């Protein structure tokens, strides 16, 4: 089977899913991989990658700027919706590669081009838990959820099948939706968790999210902290700053006492597997707000807001850290096998083995 696989480039969660599943698919199928942004660099060691532009968020100080995010992403959106240069290039790739199946992890050009050419599509991401299922939503976020899912559906359309990778499940809204656990990297599966003393801090945009107030609180803690994502290295008092590297990060994750982070699906799943307590301060997005509620609901840790983070809260969390993962209410396992099985099952259901893409009128 010939598979064209597109990966959204913001953050590392999308790339980590692809890094787990693409090598497995490539053992039995021919795979053409497209990715941009953070995902492109992360996936290059795993599989050859064709670069495409990527959507992203824009911060001003510690706050997400919605207006500037829209403005910065407008050229990509117009290109994808109106058949601009990048989408035409992706369509040309599809015509040349002749994929039997297109998989997209929230990558807009792949979704739009495949829909335009009439190719069978599988949506494989985490946001599908909001668009294609009914998870519990924090009070007051109902309108945000409706807007976020409407935008998501506008960008990716309605795939033939959907695979949701998530550390929690929810009732599906439609048929053809499969849930799989978070996909775990080989380094995580091989790690031996130990109860260390340091607090691991991961903020996917720490240059904007690591405020002076938070740094002061970390310096005042009775335990050391290791901070990833701040864009610098070295030790300053009780805080060690490190650049993101998958091996050192997994070592620090396995050895930490607890984790303070945003509420990305990937890190939460890895923390569950290693039995680490979480204090999550979600980004101002419905996806992360729902994830944070699930962390609290499943007994994995606490949720808070960036504005509420102070020394008292961090100390309170660390005092309780050992109690959270003791009796998890959700089994932690690797979703890679289930994801590959779901892809191949859906491919069979769609009858795509000998499918040829049609040319657009």
Question: Which tags fit this structure?
Answer:
Rossmann fold; 361 residues; single chain; alpha/beta; globular; 16 strands; 7-stranded mixed sheet
Mind explaining what this structure looks like?
The protein has 361 residues and is of the alpha/beta class. It has two domains: 2-183 and 335-350, 3-Layer(aba) Sandwich (Rossmann fold); 187-323, Rossmann fold (3-Layer(aba) Sandwich), CATH 3.40.50.2000. It has helices at residues 13-26, 37-43, 66-82, 85-97, 108-117, 128-131, 142-156, 186-190, 206-209, 212-220, 246-255, 265-274, 286-297, 311-320, 336-350; strands at residues 2-7, 30-35, 49-51, 59-60, 63-64, 101-105, 121-125, 161-165, 177-180, 199-202, 225-228, 234-236, 239-242, 258-261, 277-280, 301-303. It has a seven-stranded parallel sheet, with helices on both faces. A seven-stranded mixed sheet has the order 12-13-11-10-14-15-16, with helices on both faces. A two-stranded antiparallel ribbon has the order 4-5. α2 (37-43) links the parallel β2 (30-35) and β3. The radius of gyration is 20 Å and the shape is globular. It starts with a strand and ends in an 11-residue tail after the last helix. Mean pLDDT is 89; it is low at 354-361.
């Amino acid at each position: 089977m010939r598979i064209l696989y597109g990966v959204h480039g913001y953050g590392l969660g999308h790339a980590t899913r692809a890094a787990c599943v693409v090598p497995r698919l490539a053992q039995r199928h021919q795979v053409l991989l497209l990715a941009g942004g953070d995902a492109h660099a992360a996936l290059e060691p795993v599989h050859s990658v064709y670069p495409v532009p990527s959507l992203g968020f824009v911060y001003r100080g510690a706050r997400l700027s919605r207006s500037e995010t829209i403005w910065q992403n407008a050229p990509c959106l117009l290109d994808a919706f109106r058949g601009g240069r990048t989408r035409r290039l992706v369509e040309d790739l599809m015509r040349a590669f002749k994929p039997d199946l297109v998989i997209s992890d929230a990558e807009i050009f792949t979704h739009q081009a495949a829909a335009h050419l009439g190719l069978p599509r599988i949506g494989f991401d985490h946001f599908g838990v909001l668009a294609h299922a009914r998870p519990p939503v924090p009070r007051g976020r109902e309108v945000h959820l409706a807007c976020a899912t409407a935008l998501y559906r506008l960008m990716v359309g309605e795939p033939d099948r959907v695979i949701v990778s998530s550390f929690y499940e929810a009732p599906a809204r439609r048929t053809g939706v499969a849930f799989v656990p978070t996909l775990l990297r080989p380094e995580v599966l091989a790690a031996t968790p130990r109860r260390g003393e340091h607090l691991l801090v991961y903020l996917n945009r720490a240059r904007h999210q690591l405020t002076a107030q938070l740094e002061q609180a970390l310096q005042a803690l009775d335990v050391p902290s290791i901070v990833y994502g701040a864009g610098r290295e070295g030790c300053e008092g009780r805080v060690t700053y490190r650049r993101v590297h998958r091996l050192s990060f997994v070592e620090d994750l396995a050895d930490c006492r607890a984790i303070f982070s945003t509420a990305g699906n990937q890190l939460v799943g890895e923390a569950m597997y290693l039995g680490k307590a979480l204090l999550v301060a979600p980004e101002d997005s419905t996806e992360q707000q729902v994830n944070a509620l699930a962390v609290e609901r499943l007994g994995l840790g606490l949720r808070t807001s960036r504005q509420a983070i102070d020394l008292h809260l961090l100390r309170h969390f660390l005092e309780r850290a050992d109690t959270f993962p003791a009796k998890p209410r959700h089994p932690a396992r690797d979703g890679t096998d289930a994801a590959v099985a779901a892809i191949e099952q859906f491919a069979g259901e769609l009858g795509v083995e000998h499918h040829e893409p049609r040319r657009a009128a």
